[in-house]
């Protein structure tokens, strides 16, 4: 596994671009030199940089930065899918967020991206049976970023969460690949029921700001959920839903709404 990781690092265009952008950032804003060097230029890979960044953000008097960093490094070493997803997330943010002009921005500044990477470590811990540590990551991520993602939730890659404040994703929620959502989205339950009780979001879905999707319902791939909607029933693929409660108001408008981020019909 270590050999595979070394090969990926050696031919990693995402990391090479991040390094180039980091060097440019130091030249353009020398006062940020310490931040950029410690968070980016000092490291040899995306994995090392993310482990440092996550541990720095989540450290507290209850858990040291060094311990958290060791946990993150272990997760990256044991499960290469975390690394693959992180790179896909960086590219997703760059491609879909008009405020993102460099790959380095999600790594340093965007809490949506950073919170998702914290979730990925927590999810690995959960699957390893280290549930209390997973809960600690969830708790600190909620405190630091204002984003609450249960570590048991299953989230794909290529995820873009714009602005990201007040995101809530419940325990049995499933989010597919290439999903985009804006701030104040809730993927929640409808009461105190146990077992499978949260939404299943298909690939390529766009969820507008403030939308609430409640219950064990399926949102079909490449659909759109309008801002402020409350979704209580299944959404077919490639449709746009809006309202409280949400109803189908038309087609999705394009083949990949989560990528195009076209909300003009929402």
From TrEMBL:
Catalytic reactions of this protein: L-serine + acetyl-CoA = O-acetyl-L-serine + CoA
The EC number(s) this enzyme carries: 2.3.1.30
Key words, A-Z: Acyltransferase, Amino-acid biosynthesis, Repeat, Transferase
Domain Serine acetyltransferase N-terminal span(s) in chain numbering: 14-118
Broad enzyme group: transferase
Record CDD domains: LbH_SAT
Pathway where it operates: Amino-acid biosynthesis; L-cysteine biosynthesis; L-cysteine from L-serine: step 1/2
Superkingdom of origin organism: Bacteria
Gene Ontology molecular-function annotations: serine O-acetyltransferase activity
Entry's family note: Belongs to the transferase hexapeptide repeat family.
NCBIfam families: cysE (TIGR01172), EPS_EpsC (NF041874)
Name the UniProt record assigns to this protein: Serine acetyltransferase
Source organism of the structure: Cognatishimia coralii
Gene: cysE
């Amino acid at each position: 596994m270590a050999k595979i990781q070394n090969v990926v690092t050696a031919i990693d265009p995402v990391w090479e671009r991040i390094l180039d952008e980091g060097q440019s950032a130091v030249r353009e804003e020398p006062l940020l030199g310490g931040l950029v060097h410690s968070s980016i230029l000092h490291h040899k890979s995306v994995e090392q940089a993310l482990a440092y960044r996550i541990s720095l953000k989540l450290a507290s008097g209850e858990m040291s930065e060094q311990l958290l960093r060791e946990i993150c490094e272990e997760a990256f070493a044991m499960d290469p899918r975390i690394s693959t997803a992180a790179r896909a997330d960086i590219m997703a943010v760059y491609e879909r967020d008009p405020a993102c002009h460099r790959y380095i921005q999600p790594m340093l500044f965007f809490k949506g991206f950073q919170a998702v990477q914290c979730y990925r470590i927590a999810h690995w811990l959960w699957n390893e049976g280290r549930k209390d540590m997973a809960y600690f990551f969830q708790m600190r991520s909620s405190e630091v970023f204002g984003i609450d993602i249960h570590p048991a939730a299953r989230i794909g890659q290529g995820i873009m969460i714009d602005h990201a404040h007040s995101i809530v994703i419940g325990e049995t929620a499933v989010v597919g690949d290439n999903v985009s959502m804006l701030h104040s989205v809730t993927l929640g339950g409808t009461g105190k029921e146990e077992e499978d009780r949260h939404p299943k979001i298909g690939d390529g879905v766009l969820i507008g700001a403030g939308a609430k999707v409640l219950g064990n319902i399926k949102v079909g791939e490449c659909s759109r959920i309008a801002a402020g909607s409350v979704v209580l029933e299944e959404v077919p693929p490639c449709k746009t839903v809006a309202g409280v409660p949400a109803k189908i108001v038309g087609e999705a408008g394009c083949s990949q709404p989560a990528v195009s981020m076209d909300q003009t019909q929402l």
